[in-house]
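I had to read the description of the data format several times before I understood it. Each protein is reduced to its one-letter sequence and a matching series of backbone shape codes. The format is easy to grasp once an entry is in front of the reader. For illustration, here is how one protein appears when written out as sequence plus structure tokens:
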Amino acid sequence: MNRLVRLNNFWSWLPAFRAVAEHQHLPTAAKYLGVTAPALSRSIRLLEADLGCALFRRTGRSIKLNEAGENLLALVRDGMRLIHEGMLVVQSEQFVGHLNIASAGLMTETYVIPALADLRREHPELIGFVRSLMPGELASKLLDGGLDVAFLSLPLAHERLMTVPLGTETSGVYCGPGHPLHEQDEIHLADVVAHEFVAPCPDELGQTREGWPSDIVRKIGIYADRMRIGLELCARGEYLAVLPDVLATSEGRGSLRRLPGVELPEIHMYAVHRPTIGPSGRAEAMVEAVRRRIGLR
């Protein structure tokens, strides 16, 4: 068969394959594409017949990718992204529309939001969506295009994603005026753990991820999903908080006291996005904007 004719048939089946591969549920994938489940199933059967191999493991109503399917999905994602990015270049729209960012903790308040504002001054038609996601969601969202870039304090190891180190920051245990430890002269670890902390909401592994040593038991009075909330509660003298030094000493926060007695590891900062396979786009531009912000500190 003529190669172009074969590719014409093959390409028409790929949206069906990708939808089923990413949803792993025929009715959901059919609803997503606006077609019927039987039509979607037929497209998958035709694709498998053309390739001469199965792409899914079928058990009852369950349908999951096999190794061949996983490999094809990675290629389909890259091919569709390359074409989409090429369309944006032709239309001069690389920096128009939504920029989907995942970020939490130190990087959000200190670097990501200011960097996004910098980028939008250059590209005002770019609309940023910044949200926090559980670590287990990030890889799939980045791979399927639901996210453009994620900023993390832990590296995300995945063979199909690019992790970019952005540097480190130091942190400490802080309290505000009115807290019993604010004016105390000699402070030891036992004094620190005797008081309640405000801490980030734990992840699916039960870790708060702000740098507190996991082998030291402490009291947590409030969990808050925004570092800014923890900063405000700490500044009012109600709770102790583990805070990045760059945040605790900014915005006239000189009244906060950094307590001795606890040595905390440095906070590592990373950006994660899909590898660049065409012209550098919005994800790479956002990473560079964050780099510039970090360089200003």
Q: What stands out?
A: The two ends are 61 Å apart (CA to CA). Residues 3-89 form a domain with the Arc Repressor Mutant, subunit A fold (CATH 1.10.10.10). The mean pLDDT is 86.
